[in-house]
Amino acid sequence: MRLRKVPRAERQKRRDELLELVGLPGFGDRQAVQLSGGQQQRVAIARALAYEPKVLLLDEPFGALDVKIRHQLRRSLRAIHDRLKITTVLVTHDQEEAFELADRVGLMDRGRLVEVGRAEDLYARPRSLFAATFLGSGTVLTGRVHGGNARFEGLDVGLTLPVPQEEGSPAYLLLRPEDVTVSSTEPSQGQPSLGTGSVVDQRFAGALRRVRIQLARRAEVHPGSTPTPGPDSAAQVEALLPSQQPLPKSDLWVSLQRWHFLDPPPASLLVADDGRGPAGRLEIARHLARALDARITLLGVAVDARHSERLGWSLRRRQRVAGLEEAELRVRYGNAANQILREQDELLSQMIVFPARTRPAWLDRFLGDGGPRPSRTMITVLESARVPVLMAAGTAPRPPLRAVLVKSPEQKATDAQRFLARLARPLAMQVTDLETDLDTQEPFDSPGTDLIVVPLARRGPQGSLRIRPRIARLLASGDRSVLLVPSQESDSRR
């Protein structure tokens, strides 16, 4: 206030008013070192209010304080806000802090504002997967749309979607702990049930108890769920129960009181590029993104942190060459397959694109007597992927495209046909079917074809995808683009 030429008497009056406001009357003559951490934070707020701003910005103001002082300051800040009627923007990582103080909460992810709304709405009815898994805990089941209902593989529950969605599209069901009912008897007719389960963990939380239950049936659970699904794909849900409610360890019936479907995720395309090979092969990603109305994320995975910067420079140059300047660039390091699958799970990308190399130098399992072998990264991603994977090879084709759908005589290829139908019109794609034996090493004879499309079936329910020998040879040759589409049908052969 002195810098703003405020008279001395007015400054002193304003000082005393502000100290009274933040609960520190009579502290005006003390030195900063004579104040506790909580008192110093209150003085900082008083300083910010000294010249009566129209907007107050607070950047994690309570981060370095203990729980008790933090709670006291939150109450003081809310009281000051209500009294002065100043618009206040608070930046915090503490969900409890945001819930207690804010009239409206905005969620940011990687610099983007994802959702804005009341805390109650964002918690109970989030639109995005990020909001569902970032705020509070809960299990997110992943299923498919069939006949207007959401079906979840391994579970008998079928729930009607609030808004009609495209047949075969993914469905994401959020189950908060307080929405899950647990009992020792079978639920009444008409109440959605997840079947039986057993208690694997429980934590005392005062009047309530958090119970983790492993279901008897396997189901696909998103990795961002709480609790995180185990490696055996056994679904686990968390329930919030009264502490006094007795529970047997096993043979518990798990049913749903409430549930919430997340909005369909925005279309996105994940391009996994290692910075080598002709960059022009990435151009096909631009055509596919336009056909799917999707944004592109370009992902590079370095061996370790020391090589990340060099890889980033290479990928930025390849972005310009391939015309992908608008794509978001992400550089990670570590195991390439794990990083690719993790990014796909986080972004909910509808497709993964790999640029093939002209001269493969792949190090993977033995897939034939000599000859090239698909890379370990590609095979791992293909076996685990839940979305179509494209290996872009040769010169990137421009629409119109000629595609061949290759399948064995016993395959239905329904999912592959449905996905191709989405691409056919915007890419002016002509699709022909080819039934052939996929368990041989013979090359495909399809001259003039821009794209070979292959449906991949699972090794049993919830199993990995099966890469037939002929497909492995095609991937290893790297001489033409191949689109592999996961199918929900299971392959009985091992």
Tell me what the structure shows:
- The protein has 494 residues and is an alpha/beta fold.
- The protein has three domains: 8-103, Rossmann fold; 137-261, OB fold (Dihydrolipoamide Acetyltransferase, E2P); 268-490, 3-Layer(aba) Sandwich (Rossmann fold), CATH 3.40.50.
- Helices cover 26% and strands 29% of the residues.
- The protein is built from twelve helices and 23 strands.
- A nine-stranded mixed β-sheet has the order 17-16-15-18-19-23-22-20-21, with helices on both faces. Strands 7-6-5-8-14 form a five-stranded antiparallel β-sheet.
- α10 (376-384) links the parallel β18 (351-355) and β19 (389-392).
- The longest helix has 18 residues, at 67-84.
- The protein is globular and about 90 Å long.
- The model is unreliable at 358-370 (pLDDT under 50).
